[in-house]
Specification:
about 850 residues, alpha+beta, Alpha-Beta Plaits, five-stranded antiparallel sheet, 24 helices, about 60% helix
Length: about 850
C-alpha cells in the first residue's frame, strides 16, 4: 500500500489494446491518470509514427483556438469557466470541428484585416485633417502658386512639397510630441538656421493601427529654400518617422479639403463601429464554447501522442505497449480495459500482463492537497530512488518548525496564518480561475505550507515572548524588584542580583523582564545560539537514523556495521557530547549556588573545553579557585570519545569497499564455474541467450577496487568535514532569529514609538493613525515578506543539505503518468516540431 513513507510499488505491464477501442481506452486511462507508457518504437522518427497525422490535425486546431483566444482577450471579452470537464474530441467529430474552426478563423481574420485597413485610413485622414486644421491658419489666405512669386520656374517640386520661385520648399506633417524638439533642432542644424519652422499650439492623441497604442503627436510647418536642403529635410523626416502630407495651394482648396475630410472621417467612424460590433458579436459567440473546445482538442492530442508509443503487431489487429502502473491501481486499470471493450462490443477484450524486468521503476508518492506543497519542496531538489525513504513526510513538521525558530514572532505568525487560511477557504474559487500569474501560483501552491509556518511561528513567538518586539506578561516574572520608589528614581539602571530573592521560574518561554534589560542581547544570544546547536545535532542524528531503515529495507546489512554505526558514533562522540556539556553547564552552575565551585563565576566556557578536547590539551580554569572541568575524569572521558570518533574514520573509509570487493570476487568465481560448465553442452540459440545473461551478471560484479575506494573516500571525507560545517550551518537559526527580533524592535522604536507614541498631545492621537499605516507597510514588506522569504530559503537549505544528505540519494526518476490533469504540459513545442518535420517529409 503506497504512502508518503516510501514510494508506491510499481510494476511493468505489457498492454494489448484492440485498435477499434484504442481511443476510448486511452481516454479512460487519461481520466484515471495512473499509467506511464513507454515508447515501443524509439528508433522510429517521431514524424513517421502511426498516429502522427491525427496528432498534427489536433495541433493545427489548437493553433486556431489559440489565435481566437488571443483575439478574445485582446478585446477584453470574458471567457466563462467550465463547471464540468468535457470529454475528448471523438475521431468522427474531428472533420466537423476542423471545418467549423476554419470558418471561424477565416471570419475573424477577414474582419481583423478590414478593421486594420480602415483604421489605417482613419488615422491617416485624421492626421491630415489635424494638419490642415492647424497649418491652414498659419498660411492664412496666401495662395501657394507660381504666379504669386518670382517668375523663375520651379523644377524640383516633389510629393508633399510645393514649389516656389527660387525653389522654395514647404513641408507639413505630424511628428511625435516627445521627438518634436529634437526634430526641430536637427532641421535647424542641417539648414544652419535658414528655415522657417512652426508647430501647432495644441497636440493630439492618435492610435497606432496595428498595436492600438495611443501616441501623442503635434502638427508642424517647415519652409526652406534649395534642392540640396530639401533632400536633407526628407532624410531627417524619414529618420524621425514623420508623416508628411501635401497642402492645397489656395485658401479655398484648403477649406474645401477640410470639409471633405471631415465628412469622410464621419463615414469611416460609422463603418468602424459596425465592423467592431460584428467582430465583438462573433468573438462573444466563440467565447462561450472556446474553453470546451480547447480542452477537447488537448485531450485528443494527448491521446494520439500516447498512442504513438504503441507498436502495431504483424496482423495489425492489436496495439502492443508497455506501461508502469502502481500496484494499488492495477485493478482499476484492468477493470477499465474490460469496460471499454464491452462498451464497443469487440470479440477480444483488451488486457494487461505483468512483465518481469530488472529496470528501475519510477518514483511515485501519493499526495493530497495538504501534503502536495511539502512534497514539491523535496522534488525540487531531486526525486528519491525507488522505495527510498521519502523526506517529504518528515518535512511536514520539521520544515515549519525550523522556519519558526528563525521567524519566531507571535503577531507575524498570525499574519502568515491568516494569509494561508484565506487561500485555503477560497481554494475552490482560485482553482477554477486558473490564474497564469506565476508568482501567485507559487504562493497558492504552498498555501498549506504557509499556514503551517504561520502556526509554528506563533508557537516560537510565544516561547520567545515576541509580539511585534514586545513581551506579554503571562505570569509573575522570575525577577523581583526589592528597591523602593526613591531608589528607583535615583538610579537610571537597576541591577537585579540572582542571589537576591526571586520568584518561581517563568515556565513558558523567556521572562518578559528581559525585554527592558540592558543586557538582553547577551541573554538572547546565549539561549538562541545553544538552542540552534542542540536542534541541529538532533536533526542530523535523526537523518542518520533514517539511513539505518534504508539499509534494513534494501537488505544492505553490511552498511549497518561498516557505515551507519561509525557515522553515528562519530557524530555522538563529538557533537552530541557538546550538547551534553551545554546541559551540564545549565544544571550544574547557578547564581544562587552557595558553593564557589558551582557558582556562575566558575562556569567553564564550553567552546574552550571542546577546542581543548580536539587538540588533546589540558583546559585551564576560569579563575584560580575554580575547577577547569565540570566533573572528575572529564578529560579522560573526552580523550576516549575522541579516540572512538577518530577510529570510526578508517572503518568508514575501508570497510564498505573492502567488503564489496570481497563479495564481488566470490560471486565472480561462482559465475565463472557456471560459464565453464554451460559451454560444454550449449548448442541452441536459446543457450546463447542464456550465456549473454550470465556474461551481463559477470560484468556487474567486475568492479575495480580503485573505483570503490574513490567513491567511498569522497563520501567519507565529505561526511567528516560536513559534520563540522553542517553543525555550524545550524547557527543560522540563531542568527536570523536575532536579526528578525532586532529589526522588529528597531521598526517599532524608530517609527511607531518615536514618531507617534511619544507625542501625548491631541495632534499625537492623529499622528498615530498615519504613522501606524507607515509602520504596518514596513512590517509587512520587510519583516513578513522579505524576512519570511529569507527564513524560507535558509530552512530549505537546512533540509536539502544538512538533513537529507545523511540518508537521501535522490537518484530516482519521476512517475509522470498519462493524465488529462496535466493536459500535455511541456509537450506543445515537441509536437509542433514533429508536425513541421512531417510536413517537410511529405513534401519531399
Amino acid at each position: 500500500m503506497g504512502c508518503m513513507l516510501r514510494s508506491d510499488p510499481m510494476s511493468l505491464f505489457d498492454t494489448y489494446i484492440q485498435p477499434e477501442v484504442a481511443f476510448e481506452t486511452m481516454s479512460y486511462l487519461g481520466d484515471l491518470g495512473c499509467c506511464q507508457f513507454l515508447d515501443m518504437n524509439p528508433d522510429v522518427q517521431p514524424f513517421q509514427k502511426s498516429y502522427v497525422s491525427e496528432m498534427c490535425r489536433c495541433a493545427e486546431m489548437e493553433r486556431k483556438l489559440r489565435f481566437m483566444e488571443d483575439e478574445i482577450l485582446k478585446d477584453s471579452i470574458h471567457i466563462p469557466h467550465l463547471k464540468t470537464e468535457p470529454q475528448a474530441l471523438q475521431p468522427n467529430e474531428m472533420l466537423t470541428y476542423e471545418n467549423m474552426l476554419d470558418k471561424w478563423e477565416g471570419d475573424i481574420m477577414e474582419m481583423s484585416t478590414n478593421e486594420s485597413n480602415l483604421m489605417k485610413n482613419y488615422v491617416k485622414m485624421s492626421e491630415m485633417y489635424y494638419v490642415l486644421e492647424h497649418v491652414g491658419p498659419m498660411l492664412g489666405d496666401a495662395e501657394l502658386r507660381r504666379e504669386s512669386f518670382f517668375s523663375k520656374k520651379n523644377t524640383t517640386a516633389g510629393a508633399g512639397d510645393i514649389g516656389f520661385g527660387g525653389q522654395l520648399m514647404v513641408l507639413a506633417g505630424v511628428v511625435r510630441r516627445k521627438r518634436c524638439f529634437h526634430f526641430e533642432m536637427m532641421l535647424w542644424r542641417i539648414s544652419r538656421g535658414n528655415i522657417y519652422f512652426r508647430q501647432a499650439s495644441q497636440d493630439r492623441i492618435f492610435k497606432e493601427p496595428m498595436s492600438i497604442k495611443e501616441i501623442r503627436k503635434v502638427a508642424f510647418l517647415a519652409i526652406c529654400q534649395g534642392e540640396e536642403l530639401k533632400l536633407r529635410m526628407q532624410k531627417v523626416c524619414s529618420g524621425f518617422r514623420v508623416n508628411v502630407y501635401s497642402c492645397p495651394k489656395t485658401y479655398e482648396e484648403r477649406t474645401d479639403m477640410l470639409e471633405k475630410l471631415g465628412t469622410r472621417l464621419l463615414d469611416i467612424e460609422q463603418v468602424l463601429r459596425k465592423t467592431d460590433f460584428h467582430r465583438c458579436k462573433t468573438l462573444r459567440t466563440i467565447s462561450r464554447q472556446i474553453r470546451t473546445w480547447v480542452i477537447q482538442v488537448k485531450k485528443s492530442k494527448s491521446i494520439y501522442h500516447n498512442l504513438n508509443y504503441f507498436n502495431m503487431d504483424i496482423t495489425k489487429k492489436c496495439l502492443i505497449g508497455q506501461c508502469w502502473v502502481p500496484d494499488r491501481d492495477v485493478n482499476k486499470v484492468q477493470e477499465g480495459l474490460k469496460k471499454c471493450s464491452q462498451m464497443v462490443g469487440t470479440n477480444v477484450h483488451s488486457f494487461m500482463s505483468k512483465r518481469n524486468t530488472d529496470a528501475v521503476p519510477p518514483t511515485f508518492h501519493r499526495t493530497n492537497r495538504f501534503t502536495k506543497g511539502f512534497q514539491a519542496l523535496i522534488n525540487a531538489y531531486g526525486d528519491s530512488a525507488y522505495r527510498e525513504l521519502n523526506p517529504g513526510l518528515y518535512t511536514i513538521i520539521t520544515f515549519p518548525f525550523l522556519f519558526s525558530l528563525m521567524f519566531g514572532d507571535m503577531c507575524h505568525g498570525i499574519i502568515l496564518l491568516l494569509f494561508g487560511y484565506w487561500m485555503i477557504i477560497n481554494e475552490k474559487k482560485f482553482i477554477a480561475q486558473r490564474s497564469t500569474n506565476e508568482i501567485w501560483n507559487i504562493f497558492f501552491g504552498g498555501r498549506y505550507v504557509i499556514t503551517m509556518m504561520g502556526a509554528f511561528s506563533m508557537y516560537a513567538g510565544f516561547i520567545y515572548n515576541d509580539w511585534f518586539s514586545k513581551a506579554i506578561v503571562v505570569m509573575d516574572a522570575y525577577w523581583i524588584n526589592n528597591l523602593n520608589a526613591e531608589q528607583i528614581a535615583a538610579n537610571l539602571i537597576i541591577e537585579l542580583d540572582p542571589k537576591d530573592e526571586t520568584g518561581p521560574v517563568y515556565i513558558f518561554g523567556i521572562d518578559p523582564i528581559w525585554k527592558v534589560a540592558k543586557n538582553k542581547i547577551m541573554v538572547e544570544n546565549s539561549i538562541k545560539m545553544k538552542l540552534s546547536i542542540i536542534i541541529g545535532i538532533v536533526h542530523m542524528m535523526f537523518g542518520i537514523f533514517l539511513s539505518l531503515f534504508n539499509y534494513i529495507y534494501f537488505k544492505r546489512k553490511y552498511l549497518i556495521y561498516l557505515q551507519f554505526i561509525p557515522e553515528i558514533l562519530f557524530l555522538m562522540c563529538l557533537f552530541l557530547w557538546l550538547v551534553i556539556l551545554i546541559y551540564l553547564k545549565w544544571f550544574t552552575y547557578s547564581g544562587k549556588s552557595g558553593d564557589l565551585l558551582t557558582g556562575a563565576g566558575c562556569a567553564p566556557q564550553i567552546l574552550i573545553l571542546f577546542i581543548d578536547m580536539m587538540l588533546l590539551s589540558t583546559t585551564k580554569p576560569v579563575e584560580e579557585d575554580c575547577e577547569a572541568y565540570m566533573f572528575k575524569n572529564q578529560q579522560t572521558v573526552q580523550t576516549i570519545l575522541l579516540v572512538i570518533a577518530l577510529s570510526c574514520i578508517p572503518i568508514m573509509l575501508f570497510g564498505p569497499p573492502g567488503y564489496i570487493y570481497y563479495v564481488n570476487k566470490r560471486k565472480t568465481k561462482e559465475i565463472m564455474k557456471t560459464v565453464s560448465k554451460f559451454r560444454g553442452y550449449q548448442h541452441r540459440d536459446s543457450d546463447k541467450l542464456s550465456e549473454n545473461d550470465i556474461v551481463a551478471q559477470l560484468k556487474k560484479y567486475q568492479v575495480n577496487f580503485g573505483e570503490l575506494m574513490i567513491h567511498q573516500g569522497v563520501h567519507t571525507i565529505e561526511y567528516v568535514l560536513s559534520t563540522i560545517s553542517h553543525t555550524a550551518s545550524y547557527l543560522r537559526l540563531w542568527a536570523l532569529s536575532l536579526a528578525h527580533a532586532q529589526l522588529s524592535e528597531m521598526l517599532w522604536i524608530m517609527i511607531f514609538a518615536k514618531l507617534a507614541l511619544s507625542d501625548h498631545s491631541i495632534l499625537g492621537s492623529i499622528k498615530v493613525f498615519v504613522v501606524f499605516a507607515i509602520w504596518a507597510i514596513f512590517t509587512l514588506s520587510i519583516l513578513v515578506i522579505m524576512e519570511g522569504l529569507s527564513a524560507f530559503l535558509h530552512t530549505l537549505r537546512l533540509h536539502w543539505v544538512e538533513f537529507m544528505s545523511k540518508f537521501y540519494s535522490g537518484g530516482g526518476w519521476p512517475f509522470r503518468p498519462f493524465s488529462f490533469k496535466g493536459l500535455m504540459s511541456g509537450e506543445e513545442e515537441k509536437i509542433d516540431t514533429v508536425c513541421k518535420k512531417r510536413q517537410t517529409y511529405l513534401q519531399e
